[in-house]
Each structure stands twice: as C-alpha cells, then as structure tokens.
Request: fold
Amino acid sequence: MKLQSFLRCSRRDCGRTYELHDRALACASCGDLLEVVVDPGESNPSELKRVWRERRTSWDERDASGVWRFRELLPTYGAEIVTMGEGNVPLVRGSKTAQWAGVLDLRFKHLGWNPTGSFKDLGMTAGMTEAKFTGATTVACASTGNTAAALAAYAAKGGMNARVYLPAGQASANKLAQALDFGAEVVQISGSFDRALDEMLQGTDRNVYFLNSINPFRIEGQKTAMFELMEQCGWQPPDYLVVPGGNLGNSSAFGKAFVELKRFGLIDNVPKMVIVQAEGANPLARMWRSGRTELEAVAMPETVATAIRIGNPRSWRKALEAVRFTGGTVTDVTDEEIGEAKAMIGRDGIGCEPASATTLAGIRKLQQSGEIDKDAKIVAVLTGHVLKDTEYIIKRHERLYAQAV
Ligand code: F0G
Reply:
C-alpha cells in the first residue's frame, strides 16, 4: 500500500508539515520552500524497476508519460492528469563534444526533446495536474521563457487560463512565440527575471495558482528525469551528472531524486552533481568558491544564455544540499565558452539552446583543471532544444554569412 504524500518544509531544522494540497509555496513558520514527501509503500526495488520497465510497452496515458510511469514515487491522483506524453527522451553519445572537452565517455540526456522543447514539461505535467485537482482556473509563472512556454501549453491542454510574467525584451522570440501561440496572457516586466518573479508573487490574487519551480509539485515532475536516466544506465549511475543552474529548481529536483532512489534501495551510489552557471549570473558558484554560508544575489545578471540570466535563485539551499549530498561541485563559464560549447554540440548533430551548453563548457573547464578525469563516465543534461533561441545562432554565424555573399 502506497502511503499518503504530504508537504514538508525543506529546511531540515524546521521540517513543519502541511497537508498535500495546501497550495502553500513557503513554510508559514520559517519562510523556506516546501517539498513533497512520498513513500512507495511495500513495493520492493526490483518490483518497482520491473513495473516501470513494463509500462514502456503500454499505451495507457499514464504509462506513456515518462513522468507518470514512475507514479509510485509521485503524489497520487484518482482524477484526470494533464499530460502530453512528456519524458522518454534518449541518452545520446557525443563524440566530437567528448573530444573537445577532453573526456572519453560523454552522453547527453536531452530534455529539450520534450513536447514544448525543454525540461519544464516534466514539471509542468505534475504542477498542472495539481492545479487542476485544486480547482484552479488561472495559472501563472514568471519566466525567462521556457517555463512560460510549458505553462501556456499545459494550461491550454488542461483547460485553464495562463498568465506569464516575462522580463521585457529578454526572453527569446521563439519562447515568447510559443507562449502566445498557446494562448497565454503575456505581462512584460521591465528589469530581470528576479523582478518579474517578485512582481508575480506580490500580486496577491489567491485564486491564481503559481507554477514557478518553487512550487513543490513542479519539482516532483522534474525529478523523474533522473529515474529515467538511471533506468537507461541499467541502474548504474555515471560518475558525474552535469546540469546548468539558473533558479536552481532543476538541480534541487535531481538532488531529491537521488536521495529517494538511494533511500528506497533503487541505486547504491549517486553520481557527483556538477552545477554550471554562466559567469554573469553566478551567485551559487561565487558562494561555493568563497565558502560563504548565505547566498549573495547578483544584482544585474548578464549572459547570452538568457534562460539562466538569474541573479537571485530561489532554490539555492536545496541545490547546495544536493551538491553536498552527491559530493559534487559548482562552477561557472564565460559567454564565449558557452558559445563554443554550443557550436560543438551542434556539430555532433544534437543541438541545444545556449543555457544547456554551459554543461559541456563546464566539463571542459573541470577536465582542464584536473577535477574531472578523462575516463570518467559523464552525463550532461541538455535542457532546451536548438530551436529555442534561433536569433542567437544566426547572430553568431552572421560573420560567416557576410563572407559568403
Ligand atoms: N536551462 C534552460 C533551457 C532553462 O530554461 C532554465 C531555466 C535552466 C536551464 C535552469 O534551470 O532554473 O531550474 O536552475 N529556465 C527558467 C524559465 C528560469 O523561466 O524558463 P533552473
């Protein structure tokens, strides 16, 4: 019997609990973020692995989703789920990229190959299902673009209104176009993503359901990417898992996945998680290097990787805990390094948006500094599709075009 899930404050020295469908985003006692606590009940690890594998051959809507296939470790819904068959993305080997980074065993988990072209769909199916379950009619998020696109699509699918707060002129045109196409109301906020998020959270309309990654249900969906990855690796984790860091919801989600996989006996050891930020938006990397215990926000974040142009990441505590739990590290890379890495991922025929390329640039940097061995097994998470920011690509190649004419 699977036990009933509940919400708990993620701050270990607080730990206050809440009813699962409470709709709270922060702890009423200490103000920190909440997390969903799940328990698979009596299912043993080999039974879970067998059931999850068998579902891959089923056409049932829940089984066909790469998120809900793992539902023993998710909150349970008797009601309708809002899904578009997200997840189930391949693990692709990069050969030119591996050579460029100076490593021998590099694979990409391409979460950009999801319905709206980013990993946000994994969180959105879970968050939107919860929104619908609680009777929400309007959902909202602040976004650098991808969350907005995913929210707009899943709200449309679930029959809800969508409102997205974007930093004016800073989200890529492709992402804005998606949000518009899916019928979202777009609110442009002057300033950064951080300001857009503040603005949204201060708009106190309690009838609106907030779906940023501080929403614990989003984290539940996103964590399943690691269940799927471990399954693809035959439940033998790689040495390193490398992820881009923006608001740090995704690294928190992956950290939660590893805690649960280990606790429930599905894996014996965990990969070292490496978070890579862009140098102009690197509060966690700065904190990591300085040994400080509190995050100092970057006031004016600036990077070509607009998806992660974030100066005050809300999930930093959870992400830091995940890095520590896995024995990983945090680093940062320059815009030029991101550009070169992105071009190499393209040359492997894989492609991604700039924020995702921080991973490859980070691997190269850590290999060159001797922190990563050249024969380490590495999985880099690509978070967004190559078509998410076409203006960036055209601009980067403009010089070549000019020569050709
Ligand atoms: N990669 C891409 C392509 C993203 O869109 C984001 C975040 C990240 C990495 C970083 O993930 O915030 O969980 O650390 N995009 C958010 C958005 C902020 O609004 O689309 P994170």
Q: What stands out?
A: The longest helix spans residues 216-232.
